[in-house]
Amino acid sequence: MARRALARVNLGAIERNVALLKRGLRGGAQLWAVVKAGAYGHGAVPVARAALRGGAGGLAVATAEEAAELRGGGVQAPILVMGAISGEELPVALHAGAELVAWDERFLDQLARSATAPVRIHVKLDTGMGRLGTRELSEALAVAGRALAAGPQLELAGAMTHFATADDDPEYLAVQLDRFTPFVAELRERSPRIVAHAANSAATLREPGSHLDLVRCGIAIYGCDPMHEDPDRHGLEPALELSSYVAAVKLARAGDSAGYGRRFIAPADTWIATLPIGYGDGIRRALSDNCEVLIAGRRYPLVGAVSMDNITVALGARPSVEVGAPAALIGRQGEERQTAEQLARRIGTISYEVLCGISARVPRRYDRDGEPLQ
Ligand SMILES: *Cc1c(COP(=O)(O)O)cnc(C)c1O
Predict the structure, then answer these.
(1) Is 250 an annotated catalytic residue?
(2) How many angstroms separate the alpha carbon of residue 310 from the centre of ligand 1?
């Protein structure tokens, strides 16, 4: 039965993407799956489980609440909270038993006071991203020293950094890696078991020298190309399909309009299909007159404005599709496919934002290569 709007997530694709990425890693590095922002709109708990089945060694999220959500879903794997943590969020992160990122000594002091069980700390050096972390090697080393000296509540677990340009500027990535290397070497001397990590999906795919002990892959495990082209070229399988269905088909006579603002006026008699999905579901309004929809294995242009709950699609001079026909915004029909990358390019953004933008109103349905989950 057709659903108004549905995001179908194939967990088999997630498992295979993780396994594929892992096979490409240098020297036994681990892969941790990044499942922040509700697993980039796919749903954190089911994706986390699939990634672990595919061989992920742990999970990474941005916030304390996200770690708590995974624990609430019964996930027991290690979880790294990569983002900043406020005093209010700290108890949530600690209760979830998450590993945390630190870059200043004040935060460590706060941690040492609040922790009741040992907390694993990853010290972040800002090698050029310019967001979180310290730019000063000396400060990063001081933080690490403090963690080592703090006693049993704190455990120095890792050294990390984050690349600003892994998707489009390998030279700057190399600069960042060069800045990170002495920090890792110095920490290893003090604590040989620390885990060094830097790579996101783009670095994982294009720069084996960045794999170190662990990679943090997000977008690629969902089957998107971190370099914004076609995931096929890496053998990645898009895991999410976003679909709707044809709720109405009617004739617009030449001069009739469709949608708000009369943005579309039929130049000649044109059959129009209305699909009950809109920007309230995450179909961005910038896609007005600027998108295609797959129906019955063919591409049709979205015409007129995207409304909150509906879009209109021009079928041409004949009513070539039936009411009830399934429609895909992201996904595959017959020989045709449309990727999140393609939608993103049309509106000057990246697949990440398209996927995260699929709203809570859209139900997620999970399967494994078409088979229901156990
Ligand atoms: C989101 C994030 C990642 C994952 O990035 P992708 O490009 O999705 O692979 C890795 N590391 C950090 C610090 C992040 O914030």
Answers:
(1) no
(2) 33
- pLDDT above 80: residue 1: no
Domain ranges in the chain with CATH number 2.40.37.10 = 240-338
Residue 2, pLDDT > 90, answer no
Q: Which one of the listed residues 22, 36, 40, 366 is annotated catalytic?
A: 36
Superfamily name and number for 11-224:
Alanine racemase (3.20.20.10)
From 160, 200, 351, 356, the mutation candidate for ligand 1 (largest count of ligand atoms within 8 A of CB) is 200
Going by alpha carbons, the residue nearest to atom 10 of ligand 1 is 200
Architecture of domain 240-338: Beta Barrel (2.40)
For the entire predicted model, the pTM comes to 0.97
- Catalytic residue status for 245: no
Q: Which residues of the chain form CATH 3.20.20.10?
A: 11-224
pLDDT single digits (tens) 74-129: 999 999 999 999 999 999 999 999 999 999 999 999 999 999 999 999 999 999 99
Strand partners, 101: 122
Residue pair 332/364 in contact by the 8 Å Cβ criterion: no
For β-strands 292-295 and 270-275, DSSP reports them as unpaired
Pair 103, 122: CB distance under 8 Å: no
Q: What is the per-residue pLDDT across 161-217, written as a single tens digit (0 to 9) for each?
A: 999 999 999 999 999 999 999 999 999 999 999 999 999 999 999 999 999 999 999
Summarised one tens digit per residue, pLDDT across range 302-339 is: 999 999 999 999 999 998 899 999 999 999 999 999 99
